[in-house]
């Protein structure tokens, strides 16, 4: 990896290859950051998203900086429909998509681990910010997508890193945290986010299923934004 010596500010982007994280890439670029994307192969059912992440990184001209980190233990642990094949992904066809409790697609500790590793990458690259596409409004009910969680992780970064102790710090940027999916898409389209290169489906096929919780939120967002989703569906 080559790190430039200029004074341009830098940001690590947690890039899944999905709609939200790719929007964060676009927003960070618009904010003037040099982009350092990081993706995670954590045994997810929808591993195809990593290919999308590669395409997004290439689109933004930062393939050489794109890191894909393998985390086998999430599949070893299981406990989530995204990492355990014995747990079905809920969908609207069987009436399981709307849940009052935390859904089975929640992966225990995922964002905590992602942010920890992204912090390491940020320190090494001299990045002053980490962008993550969490959303506390139009989302699936995950506890690690809430502002309270992000604020606490920022506090830990300030206490447990060299840059934090030296007073420079690393901020966690969550530009989508209180946006509806429609607003995310509207803002992304304004800045040319390549949604045709993204995927959101939890089932991990070349064509999105259209009925899992993630697909449902995505399709609803495009409809409310008055735009057509450019990816193929079954």
Automatic annotation (TrEMBL):
Needed co-factor(s): Zn(2+)
Organism, scientific name = Paenibacillus silvestris
Record-listed Zn(2+) binding positions = 201, 209, 212, 215
The yes or no answer to whether the keyword Transferase is present is no
What is the role of this chain?
Catalyzes the ATP-dependent conversion of 7-carboxy-7-deazaguanine (CDG) to 7-cyano-7-deazaguanine (preQ(0)).
Give the record's keywords alphabetically.
ATP-binding, Ligase, Metal-binding, Nucleotide-binding, Queuosine biosynthesis, Zinc
Entry's Gene Ontology BP terms: tRNA queuosine(34) biosynthetic process
Give the family from UniProt: Belongs to the QueC family.
EC code:
6.3.4.20
Which pathway does this polypeptide act in? Purine metabolism; 7-cyano-7-deazaguanine biosynthesis
Highest taxon in the source lineage: Bacteria
**What Pfam families does UniProt report for this protein, alphabetically?**
QueC (PF06508)
This protein is called 7-cyano-7-deazaguanine synthase
Quote the SUPFAM superfamilies the UniProt record gives.
Adenine nucleotide alpha hydrolases-like (SSF52402)
Assembly and oligomerization: Homodimer.
A GO molecular function annotation here is: ligase activity, forming carbon-nitrogen bonds
Q: Where does ATP bind?
A: 15-25
Q: What class of enzyme is it?
A: ligase
Q: Which reaction does it catalyse?
A: 7-carboxy-7-carbaguanine + NH4(+) + 2 ATP = 7-cyano-7-carbaguanine + 2 AMP + 2 diphosphate + 2 H(+)
């Amino acid at each position: 990896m080559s790190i430039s010596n200029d004074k341009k500010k830098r940001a690590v982007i947690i890039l899944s290859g999905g709609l939200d994280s790719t929007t964060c890439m676009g927003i960070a670029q618009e904010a003037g950051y040099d982009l350092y994307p990081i993706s995670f192969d954590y045994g997810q059912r929808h591993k195809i998203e990593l290919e999308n992440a590669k395409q997004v990184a290439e689109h933004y001209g930062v393939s050489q900086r794109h890191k894909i980190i393998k985390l086998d233990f999430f599949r070893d642990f299981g406990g989530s429909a995204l990492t355990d094949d014995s747990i079905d992904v809920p969908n609207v066809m069987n009436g399981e998509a709307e849940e009052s409790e935390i859904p089975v697609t929640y992966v225990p500790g995922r964002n905590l681990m992602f942010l920890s590793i992204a912090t390491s990458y940020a320190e090494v690259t001299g990045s002053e910010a980490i962008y993550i596409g969490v959303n506390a409004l139009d989302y699936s009910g995950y506890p690690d997508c809430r502002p309270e969680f992000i604020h606490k992780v920022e506090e830990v970064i300030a206490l447990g890193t060299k840059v934090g102790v030296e007073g420079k710090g690393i901020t966690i940027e969550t530009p989508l945290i209180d946006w509806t999916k429609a607003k995310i898409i509207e803002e992304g389209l304004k800045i040319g986010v390549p949604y045709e290169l993204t995927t959101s489906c939890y089932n991990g096929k070349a064509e999105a299923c259209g009925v899992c919780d993630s697909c449902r939120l995505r399709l609803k967002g495009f409809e409310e934004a008055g735009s057509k989703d450019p990816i193929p569906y079954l």
